[in-house]
Amino acid sequence: MTNAHAKPTLRVDDVACFFDVSPSWFDRTVMRKPQRTLKAVDGLSFVIPRGTTFSIVGESGCGKSTLARMVVGLYQPTRGTLSFADGSGRDGFVRTQMIFQDPFASLNPRWRVGAIIAEPIKQMALRPSGVETQARVRQLLETVGLSGQDSNRYPHEFSGGQRQRISIARALAAEPEFLVCDEPTSALDVSVQAQILNLLKDLQRELGLTYLFISHNLAAVRHVSDRVAVMYLGRIVEEAATDEVFERPQHP
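and the corresponding structure tokens:
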């Protein structure tokens, strides 16, 4: 349940992200075609309290994934600010990781699973030795419902749901406090989606994680969310507690 008085983990204030989609230089100068700007995100503001799940829903192309990429720093906002509360990490920042939509494309097919999960541990020097790193990898695999022995296998040897579990283990390897879940179940079979959603809820409860959950699957959103915002054409047109959005929606 949402704690309205919890210290916010993420505060988004009037954030916008515009892309130049103008025709080529030749078309602009010779054919006199005008410059064009795509307003993928245009003036979003919201707060995500620590330990809660804030979901963004909306049709394809409304700006959900652009927002996700801004939160993790892959895109820079054209306007506005995204600010995180002081984190518990050694660097004082809130550690943020992302779970991508397609588990078939987000894992390096040439690396064994153990190397994939160990990479952030090594890059961030989270364990002092290789032995401890490998022990952490096995622990993470077991945490997400796989076997420690799976570290020696390649991604193509796993099902879609198992690959998404590996992606979650990789995200957890960086010891994050904030996870951006960009449609994490949309590429999975319906029978597997509930398993992944329940895993995410269990991890949130055990580790105190905060989620930005992005999806067009309303059933999934209702299952995991504390609060929901509806996006349309780059803007938030409705935001409320989950039950209120689903029982008394203000937008089609």
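(Above: one complete record from the training split.) The chain has a mean pLDDT of 91.
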